[in-house]
Design brief:
The chain has 300 residues and is α+β, with helices and mostly antiparallel strands. The chain folds into two domains: 108 residues, Gcn5-related N-acetyltransferase (GNAT) (Aminopeptidase); 135 residues, 3-Layer(aba) Sandwich (Aminopeptidase). Strands 1, 2, 3, 4, 5, 6, 7, 8, 9, 10, 11, 12 and 13 form a 13-stranded mixed sheet that branches. The longest helix is centred in the N-terminal third of the chain and has 18 residues. The two termini are 37 Å apart.
Length: 300
């Protein structure tokens, strides 16, 4: 049977995740970082498929999935969450064909801005993205620290916070914070995280004002995090570190933009070290990345 490209279905997502994990680990091991990806339930992929199926595609040959592409759109921003090809089938033009279909998703959605996060050492893919008008903007580093070490160094100003709830008031504040930090609304993504049992979300408060938000996973991973003013990012990140330490996870981690000097300095002061280097690629600048910390390369 010849290779076909078709819209993804719900029953494809676990098999597609296996392709993604194998491709990531093949790449990171070849560059000396060792395996770093593990299989997880494709919950956000399933959410995205139900929300906007036009952004998810598979390459298939004889019922075997060889590649997977997934993009989402919010306002005028198209974001490529994943584009991976099985290690044994790379170099056949599969990635190019999948990218064409997700870019068509951007065109049909009317997105004027495009972005993605990829590995810094993924040079072949970066060349592909550059050919399609997405250029490297700045590095994003995954930082990690043992909880025990973090607890011995945890200090600094923190925000008062309240649990995030799916109320009109909180959703309105979240939209305003995202508009200030990113220039796009992510209301559906917030609803997803607020209802995720493995994630704790809080609203950061200064007096009666909502000045930011933080999410922390049960595995100690921070993000996304956003604040309305860049002078609040330090206290927001320290608050996030404290929340992550409370999770009980043995490790605490976060994706930190290379543009955010204050947070990078705080991470190093708290014993965090870079584990993997990544890069934001985009058609043009968007957002203030001194006010926003992404969750991961798929969620942003």
């Amino acid at each position: 049977m010849s290779l076909v490209y078709r819209p993804a279905r719900a029953q494809d997502l676990e098999r597609a995740d296996a392709i993604v994990v194998a491709s990531i680990n093949d790449l990171t091991q070849r560059h000396g970082f060792g395996p770093m990806a593990v299989s997880r339930p494709p919950n956000f992929q399933s959410f995205s498929l139900k929300d906007d199926a036009g952004g998810l595609w598979v390459a298939e040959d004889a019922d075997e999935i060889l590649g997977f592409a997934w993009s989402w759109v919010r306002d005028d921003l198209w974001f490529l969450a994943q584009l991976f090809v099985s290690p044994g089938h790379q170099g056949r033009g599969i990635g190019i064909e999948l990218l064409k279909r997700t870019l068509e998703h951007a065109r049909k959605s009317g997105a004027s801005r495009k972005a993605l996060i990829t590995f810094t050492f993924n040079t072949i893919s970066q060349g592909l993205y550059i050919r399609h008008g997405l250029f490297p903007q700045f590095p994003i580093y995954n930082f990690s620290v043992a909880r025990e070490l973090l607890m011995s160094r945890l200090q600094g100003a923190q925000f008062r916070y309240v649990p995030l709830e799916e109320t009109a008031s909180h959703l309105h504040s979240l939209a305003q914070i995202d508009a200030r930090a990113l220039g796009v609304s992510r209301d559906k993504h917030h609803r997803y995280l607020i209802n995720d049992s493995a994630t704790r979300g809080v609203m950061l408060c200064a007096g009666d004002d909502h000045v930011g938000y933080v999410y922390v996973n049960s595995d100690g991973h921070i993000g996304p995090l956003a604040v309305t003013q860049d002078d609040g990012i330090g206290a927001a990140f320290t608050t996030a570190l404290a929340l992550a330490a409370e999770s009980g996870s043995s490790q605490v981690s976060a994706f930190l933009p290379g543009t955010c000097d204050r947070v990078l300095s705080l991470a190093v002061e708290h014993g965090m070290r870079i584990t993997i280097p990544m890069v934001l690629m985009a058609t043009r600048d968007f957002g203030d990345w001194t006010q926003y910390l992404p969750r991961n390369p798929g969620f942003m």
